[in-house]
Batch of 2 targets.
Target 1
Amino acid sequence: MGVKLAVEIAGIRFKNPLLAASGTFGYGVEYEGILELASLGGIVSKGLYLEARDGCPTPRLVETPSGLLNAIGLQGVGVRNFVRDVLPRLARHDTRVLVNVCGDTVEEYAEVTRVLDAEPGVSGLEINISCPNVKKGGMAFGGDPGMTFEVVSAVRRVTKLPVIPKLSPNVGDITVFARACEEAGADALSCVNTLLGLVVDVEAQKPRLAFGTGGLSGPAIRPIAVRMTWQAARAVKIPIFGIGGIASASDALEFLIAGARAVQIGTANFVDPGVYERVLAGLTDYLTRHSLSDINQVVGTLAYPGDKPTGEAGE
Amino acid sequence: MALNRDIPLVRREVLEGPYLLLTFRHPEVARDARPGQFVMIKAGASAEPPLRRPFSILAVDPTHGEFTLFLKVIGAGTRALDALAVGGLAQCLGPLGQPFTLPPAGSEALMVAGGYGIAPFLMMSRELTSAGRPGRVFLGGRTAADLPLREPFARIGMPLVATTEDGSLGVKGRVTLALGAYLDEHSRPATLYACGPDAMLHAVAQLAESRGLPCQVSLDPWMGCGVGTCLGCVVWVRKPGELRAKYRCACTEGPVFDSRHVVWA
């Protein structure tokens, strides 16, 4: 009873450590009336470019064991339409809004950022350098440490809002990318985007997705995402949002214990819009069972083999 | 307004072959659902298969707070629902989507269904017959075993024309053939409604176009979420006054569309 679930990341206060992950919650307003948006710590918008986009051809989704492979290709309304039509509606809900920023070029990331910089309803910017389903930008930037640094620096130069690059798991050593972001002035990191995958239609001998490859999400990728969150958390000082297959309180706790300060729920939104309620109840129960009063006491408490025990949890 | 609930299975009725009727308690769906709307549903909270599945609502019983689905057991999602015991829980969100619009006064509702595409037309038939409005169902399949759900229509006095490609039941040939023949014989105003495989929907849309009749089609693309966020079920739709077609979510802007607005593949 009476446990504290609020977290503060990059100067943004979230009432609890659960955010909706980009691309799995639309622009948030789609869930008005289905769940209480104010029960979420925050919402990360679908990725936005300067202009509206059609995205990939269909089929765009295929189920996999405990997962989902998608190639949506960042279909979206464009950042100006979002600011005009969606932000005023989101302002009615007591939750934080992070906007996922996309670009074909470094300049476009900066342009989208400029449009959002002066908007009072925006708490922070998640920089999408990790979408696997676009031919330009996305993972092409997030797969190269030099380009990662360049994109994050360009965004950093044009905004005072918290800058939160979303890292790709499709790299050999995520700590290199985490450090590149930190050096470029990022305030926090999102770990991780989807894993590049391929599902084959054996009868037709072609990919099941029209785009070809896609991004794998859901519980299938969770151990990989937890491992990468843990690695990134040890490599940098800036805080981390853990993402990857979270569907229960126990899943969320894995990321927090591994070093994330908050988590984002993705594919589970499609499966059960009631997931936030369940996970929050589970977190409260966990704290109570362990005689803890604050979710921050859990962060980074992983006793990893060979590590020296730390006196205090977190920082 | 759609409501997300864990709902109990209250009745299961096994039909011929891979077909069954599942009745669940969900007072909001029972009260609010309109013909052509659907639910996203999954048996229990198990991890496999990961996603819920969309099903048209076959019938509602607002008095008892129940609704019924018509299923063809073909994949992991339907197998899991088939395995659900009476009293077991399903996760369900609904009612969802845009319903069919009933025909204007004096226009006969001609409902064309392929296989399990018959599902939305029972609720619609009930509304029509209870309002004393004219209607007719054309139900097609490859063979008689594809058409297990005919009796409920007879019970409410809704005429049903069955067609099979192999001639094992009703009129031999495709359902659009029987529809065309009916339109040839009757020149009164009609509104067409179609639910079934894409090729059938397109054929009905073409027939409607050639006769100058309004037509609403219910599309059934693969859906992930049912609320317009996963963007998996998009279809090309061009509405009047639009320069070009846009990808629109079948779950929120459909599944029912004006056939003239759909960009057929």
Target 2
Amino acid sequence: MDILAQLVVSGIAVGGVYALIALGFVLIYKATSIINFATGEFMMIGAYFFYTFMVMVGLPPIPSFLLVMVCAAMLGLFIERAILRHMLGQPTISIVMVTIGLSSILMGLAEMIWSTDFKSFPPLFPRAPIIIGDIIIRSNLFWGFVLAMIAVICFALLFKYAKVGVAMRATAGDQMAAFSMGINVRTMFTVAWSLGAIAAALGGVIIGNIGGIQPTLGHIGLKIFPVVILGGLDSIAGAVVGGFIVGLVENIAGGYLDPYVGGGVKDLAPFVVLVLILLVKPYGLFGKEDIERL
Amino acid sequence: MDPEPILSMEDISLSFGGLAVLSDISFEVNPGEIFAIIGPNGAGKTSILNCIGGFYKPSAGRIRFEGKDITRTSPDRRAARGLARTFQNIALFRGMTVLDNIKLGAHAHLKTGLLSALAYWGPAHREEMALRNRVEQEVIDFLEIEAIRKQSVGSLAYGLQKRVELARALAMQPKVLLMDEPVAGMNAEETEDMARFVLDIQEERDITVVLIEHDMNVIMDISDRVMVVNFGQKIAEGTPQEVQSHPEVIKAYLGQKRD
């Protein structure tokens, strides 16, 4: 029972971070209908930005964190303006290939700029683990979860109440009608890419702080696909719930089954659950039913 | 004596690939009138509206709005200048409430910039409250949708959805309202309500209306002037009575001359 509680708590904590990265995915998909396969690399680049500002430049954590957000927004803006805007109206498969290519380019760039060496941040939080009853959580994971949840709530509020968020929802709902309301749909695409990049980059900083960074950090992005597909590609609530499900599933399955099969269950289990849920609900748990673009 | 037209098309041609959709369409809409565009299916009526709205780029010709050339202006800027639109297939934002949809209509009139809008509270919040009050009083009362304003648009009956779409367009406080088949698919009672609203929009709110419609009774009842198109060409223009007896129009609709 203690083990289960422990696994559930760490599952929730990891799941919260997954939810944030998934949000980076959903924000872009919702407004532009583009599946960004470079989400994991956005995350990795975000972690390197943080490393650059904090370790290489020597700034304190909070300014570094803010600068990561600014740089991620610029990266999203640049990619949308320079590349994806010119792909408007092209077949979905071409756009998907572009984002896959983008992920390779970003990974290559990271290797060129920061080398393939493993790097880690100086300690950001007190090292002592957080103890709740019998349950022990690593402090980096605990604070990472708190930060991720704050970010997710901010994004949700922005989307629900702020003018730009409402305009993005309108763009997602019906582009022609959004145009007719005086909403600059192209600007909304740029905003979506910037916000998506910010969400992924923040997730990257948190993940990097937990486990260190390498140019291959973006492969964690693969785990985000079960999260967003479970939740429905276009649902913010779905991203959060999907994040928690994947975090819980991989921790519980890994914790109980790994000793018998020699490891690896953690990475496999989310995809098994994904297939099972999609068999029952092909549009994800929260997705709208008319997604058919890919 | 002629008033300056509020909206005009001059020799507009539009083609997709090799297919000519519109050829040399010209017309002028006078301020304050209800101008109807009719024609058989596929005649190019919706294409005309899409050119006015900025969704289609005509291959030749010029569109003027309040005397200014808007042929190259983007759709959102045309909307901000005072061109509102309702759609043939209702284009409401599903999942949002009636009120949210209507508030989006006033989006073009929100003056707060992006940065202060990011911080929702403060000036942006006050502006939103003022906006909400204005929208509630004017549009919701006018279209008699007070009772449903908190409901999600997806749950509403078809006729009501059309009405909400009209409310959203009116919340933009447009100078010209483009309506694509406002009574299509409506029953007799809903049609009558909608026709009354369109007349009220013109008379009380001083908005010029350009509409496409198949329902001839509605067209004849409410339009000041009618333009008839067939195969992408203008075949007649005039008062409803003039157009009704125009031989080309009768030919287009019935295939032969009526005795």
